[in-house]
Amino acid sequence: MDPELINDCVHCGFCLPTCPTYVLWGEEMDSPRGRIHLMDQHVKGTPVTPEMAGHFDACLGCMACVTACPSGVRYDRLIEQTRAVVEREHERDPRERAVRGLVFSLFPYPRRLRLLRPGMRLAERLAPFLERVHPSLGAMAGLAPPAPRRQRMPRVVRARGARRAVVGMLTGCVQGEFFPQVNAATARVLALEGCDVVIPPGQGCCGALSVHSGRADQARRLARRTVRTFRRAGVDTVVVNAAGCGSSMKEYGELLGEEPGFRVLDLSEFLAELGPVAERHPLPLTVAYHDACHLAHAQGVRAQPRELLRGIPGLELREVPDAAICCGSAGTYNIFQPEAARELGDRKARSVGSTGAELLVSANPGCTMQIVAAMRRGGADIRVAHTAEVLDASLRGVSL
Questions:
Q1: DSSP state, 239?
Q2: Which ranges constitute the DSSP H helices of 162-236?
Q3: Which H or E element spans position 257?
Q4: To the nearest 10°, the Cα dihedral for 183, 185, 190, 195?
Q5: For the CA atoms of 68, 71, 77, 78, what is the dihedral angle to 10 degrees?
Q6: Which residue from 28, 142, 231, 303 lies 20 to 30 Å from 260 (Cα-Cα)?
Q7: Across the 400 residues of the chain, what is the mean pLDDT of every consecutive 10-residue run?
Q8: What pLDDT sits at residue 241?
Q9: Angle subtended at Cα 291 by Cα 186 and Cα 169, rounded to the nearest 5 degrees
Q10: Over 285-302, what HEC string results?
Q11: Structural domain for 391, as ranges
């Protein structure tokens, strides 16, 4: 924990109304400034107690406080450093260690994730039983999306018409295995806008889940492999369609101590920079756009997705109330902190439902699973799509 970064906090309280856990519980130690106070105590000699670790674990890492802070406190760096300390110094109980070991030996590895696909149809029915075994296992089962149809991605998707750019594309772990249709739509959209899309084989996790959970060694190992993969591909820009992945990849320089040698841009960020050339066909839809925290707060990408959606004829964009408050997904948070995540998910589902929109658009697979599960619990139903899928339907003139 960096004492200089800690001292940047002047304890003004601007972060309090933006912090999801403070909004839920109103506890000072479950606010950003309260956690910074605990970090300061540790730097000054206080060991990591179970209570202290609990307050750090309860943080979603949503970075809403970074957006709100007038003093420029790097809470994002502080919480990552702190979680690494917690993982080194705090002794978790055996059941908790076992569940965390399972998650981090499974989710960052696409081939292992693939083994879950056949059982995804049963997951919702098994959730109550698994909940009794361990709340985190029940949460995992309750979040499982319908088993998707497998889609193999080619190594290169050629530009339609005149080539305007050459980009690499991250397929990801959760996105690639649970939402392969999003990757397919992303490649088509880029190609229709004049890009050669290079999709290197053998991709794995970018390290986002690990770095956000304090598993620094695993995060660096996965990050180095991702950097090698795209360096070999010879691209100078990598387009990412998952907010958490893009956020972590943009911080590779800090994680690895050297710049990766390519730019990382979110899909909406890249398309807004490139500018549209392909014709948009009408999509008569009412759409609610969900701001993924690691896109809006961590990357500062808010206007670009809305600009792209508003560029589609016939589409009506509606804003979600309290959009800046996290949905409770936060990488692995909804697995390790299922009770708090459920409360936040239910709040977000009510906000989405209040828009009356036909379609929810999300730019992060974790958010998609979290909000769909929450709406299902509340007896509501709404179709969900990624920004790429909406653009793809409009560009190809097909229904969504």
A1: E
A2: 174-178, 180-192, 208-211, 216-233
A3: none
A4: 70
A5: -100
A6: 303
A7: 90 94 95 96 93 95 94 93 93 89 86 73 71 80 74 91 96 89 96 97 89 90 95 96 95 93 97 95 96 94 96 96 93 91 95 95 93 89 93 94
A8: 97
A9: 25
A10: EEEEECCCHHHHCCCCCC
A11: 285-396
Instruction: Tell whether 353 is covered by a domain.
Output: yes
For the chain, what percentages of helix, strand and coil (3-state, to nearest 5) are there? Answer: 55, 10, 35
Residues 6+ apart with CB under 8 A from 295: 243, 246, 247, 266, 301, 302, 305, 363, 364
What CATH number corresponds to the domain at position 70? 1.10.1060.10
Beta strands in the chain (DSSP E): 156-157, 165-169, 195-198, 237-240, 263-266, 285-289, 315-319, 359-362, 383-386
How far is residue 115's CA from residue 62's CA, in Å, rounded to a whole number? 30
- For residue 21, which amino acid is it? T
- What local confidence, expressed as pLDDT, does residue 380 receive? 83
pLDDT reported for residue 132:
79
Q: Is 337 in contact with 57 (CB distance < 8 Å)? A: yes
Q: What is the pLDDT of residue 182?
A: 95
User: Residue 312 carries which DSSP code?
Assistant: S
Residue-level pLDDT at 379? 87
d(CA 19, CA 26): 10
Cα(163)–Cα(323) distance, rounded to whole angstroms? 37
- Chosen domain end from 32, 60, 89: 89
pTM, whole model, 2 decimals? 0.90
CA distance between the termini of the chain: 47
Closest CA to 116 of 149, 151, 152, 147: 147
Q: How far apart are the C-alpha atoms of 279 and 396, rounded to whole Å? A: 9
Q: How many domains does the chain have?
A: 2
pLDDT at 120: 63
On whether residue 255 sits in a domain, the answer given is: no
Instruction: State residue 386 phi and psi, 5-degree precision.
Output: -85, 155
Q: Are 205 and 222 in contact (CB under 8 A)?
A: yes
Q: What is the pLDDT of residue 118?
A: 66
